[in-house]
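Repro:
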Amino acid sequence: MSLPVVAIIGRPNVGKSTLVNRLAEVRDAIVHDEPGVTRDRTYRPAYWRDRDFLVVDTGGLVFDDDTEFLPLIREQAMLALSEASVAIFVVDGQAGLTGADEAIATWLRQQPVPVLLAVNKCESPERGAIQAAEFWSLGFGEPFPISSIHGSGTGELLDQLVEYLPPSEDVEEVEEIKVAIVGRPNVGKSSLLNAFVGEQRAIVSPISGTTRDAIDTVVERQGQRYRLIDTAGIRKKKNVEYGPEFFGINRAFKSIRRADVVLMVIDAIDGVTEQDQKLAGRILEDGRACVIVVNKWDAIEKDSYTIYEYEKHLQGRLHFTEWAETIFVSALTGLRVDKIIDLVNTAAEQHKRRVSTSVINEVLEEAVSWHTPPTTRQGRQGKIYYGTQVTSRPPTITLFVNNPDLFNDSYRRYIERQFRQHLGFKGTPIRLLWRGKKLRDLERNNPNRATKV
């Protein structure tokens, strides 16, 4: 990563994620009054004065317990610290100094990273200095009394923090391709991310719901930068209780909307479920480019017909995303994982593609000559005057016609197939807007009137 990293370290429930939200001036990190909400390390861009940096949130450190995810959380925190320029050790001023804080302090003193001590939950300026005084004994110099919720004291903390960071330099901004990795729980999303990055970037566990937040990772391949977004597994709404999983799924939906390309991961063993169909519909509704990744392909017994039968199964269950490319991989063994990037590049390119009006009308002219618009029983026939692309991401084409009601769904699908056959658009949805003559006349007579197609 080009920007310096600031690691946020501390035991569970001291307010690390709240501090991350404050420093990054966002509300992206999930905050919930429950230990273990943050598990993976998540990065957020931040700046103070003339310094740009990445603040990395980590899970709560517990050294005397090896149950469930705690060893993996420690591993993620250690990885965050290994790449950090400076660490902020967060403690709870209301709870006071604990044995867990002392254990973390002992470990931090063994690390070759400067440490700043932030005493959080000091909401009262009068009592803040008193609450912070107890933590001088940890040996990290002056403790900074702060309130992550209200922001008090964070300015003084950041003033000291930037002393450890190099000045920001004017660098040419490289365009990123944002790739969201989505799917049901336990289909292998985090394993796929780790296979891409080549390190244990996200915690992988057979326990459902391991990933709770959207995790951004920036990688570069052949001069192209990719922002990979691992997301929480999306279950049926009726099975989700209000809490960390609820927030994680909302983050996953937001990740779809901010992505250029969505990798929809399907478990090869389970096949396409009803939940997968709903998720594919969400991707289509949001207009995102998509690559369907069938994971755990190594676990399937195969013969010469297996892949063709599976493709037929996919086409039957996901017919509304037949424009998406499909690849069969194994994140565990690395089978064909490196090929996904090529499909992502193609989908991203097609997603932002623009086609000239003259080419669009050539396709329309040929399409109409082969299959004329339908005629009603009253003898009224649809007419397409011309078409033009009005936007991209996804490619959106407006067709000016005499009356949109004269074009049934079958003919509209035919026109879309003709565009795909002649122009490609593989890997991305396209939107056709059928605009009637009356609406065009209304716009012409009153150009300032807002219109809706």
